[in-house]
Write a structure and sequence with these properties.
Elements (H helix, E strand, L loop, with lengths): L6 E2 L8 H11 L6 E2 L17 H14 L1 H14 L4 E2 L1 H4 L13 E3 L3 E3 L9 E13 L5 E11 L7 E4 L3 E5 L12 E7 L3 E8 L11 E11 L2 E10 L7 E7 L7 E4 L2 E2 L3 E3 L4 E6 L4 E5 L1
Parallel strand pairs: 1-2, 10-14
Antiparallel strand pairs: 3-4, 4-5, 5-8, 6-7, 6-8, 9-10, 11-12, 12-13, 13-19, 14-18, 15-16, 15-19, 17-18
């Protein structure tokens, strides 16, 4: 059953501010995300315990809205192939089946690896990274797997990693879901080699059954200082978002040249965060030379 999740904060007993924060962080990447309690239970709305819990809960609820394009794509995979949205470690790394210590981590979709904090007053935790290269979502620090790493996890941080080469579609924060899909998406690209997908449709109705959808298949390669992002399309190119902000993580230096569909493109280098940003319409190929 793909559409599954727990009542955030629990249903039947009382939680406290720390537990609510950690549960909210976990639930951001579960298929079903709802804070729910029984009638006589202690209030556990996101603001019920005051600061700093309210602000942290607010930031992760906003994060849920940011990740909706990626989660929507994972739901398309569930409908199309029967794949779960929330995946056990052995789904992406079969060698880990039955391994102790990996049952408190999970994948959301193809490339996001979450390691929620499950112990009170914890400020760090151990994370197992499968084979391949991985980026810390928050810091862009790169790790090589397979490896067991100790990562900081203060109250405001959900340990979250991204596979190198991934294209993670996100949206700007809104107080609701858009009625007709997203006009503007932010594609986070992590230097490496991998394949990713982005599914878009009208967001409601049955038009997708008549081909009113767009499935973008990205193939990312990173070799000898050249990052290439190639895109193939199934469905209708006119469906879905029309403007993309591409945010590239993991480059060792500013780009010397950026080509979008063979044409030179302006870009901005964020020296503080070491990311490259560019604005474009949906493209067929981006080439970045550093």
């Amino acid at each position: 059953v793909a559409f599954a999740g727990a009542d955030v904060g629990g249903f039947g007993e009382d939680c406290d501010g720390e537990l609510l924060v950690r549960w909210t962080q976990l639930a951001v990447l579960t298929p079903f995300f709802r804070n729910h309690n029984y009638l006589l239970g202690r209030p556990q709305e996101p603001w019920a315990f005051g600061e700093p819990f309210t602000s942290i809960n607010r930031s992760y609820i906003a994060m849920r809205y940011q990740f909706l394009p990626a989660i929507y794509t994972a739901f398309w995979q569930a409908a199309q192939y029967g794949w779960p949205v929330m995946r056990p470690m052995f789904w992406e790394a079969p060698e880990l089946a039955g391994s102790p210590g990996c049952d408190d981590q999970f994948f959301c979709g193809d490339h996001l690896l979450a390691a929620p904090v499950l112990r009170p007053r914890a400020v760090g935790r151990d994370v197992h990274l499968p084979a391949g290269s991985w980026y810390d979502w928050w810091t862009d620090e790169r790790f090589e797997g397979p490896a067991d790493v100790r990562v900081p996890a203060p109250l405001e941080i959900l340990p979250l990693f991204v596979r190198a080469g991934a294209v993670i579609p996100t949206a700007k924060v809104m107080p609701h879901t858009p009625p007709a899909g997203w006009e503007h998406l932010i594609l986070h690209v992590f230097a490496g080699s991998a394949e990713s997908v982005l599914y878009e449709d009208a967001g409601e109705g049955w038009g997708f059954r008549q081909g009113e959808f767009r499935l973008s298949r990205f193939a990312t390669t990173w070799q000898e200082g050249v990052l290439r992002i190639r895109r193939e399309v199934d469905g209708a190119e006119g469906i879905g978002s029309r403007r993309w902000e591409v945010v590239v993580h993991g480059l060792p230096a500013p780009a010397q040249e950026v080509l979008v569909d063979g044409q030179g493109s302006a870009c901005a280098w964020d020296a503080e965060h070491k990311v490259l940003r560019l604005e474009t319409a949906p493209f067929r190929e981006i080439e970045i030379r550093v």
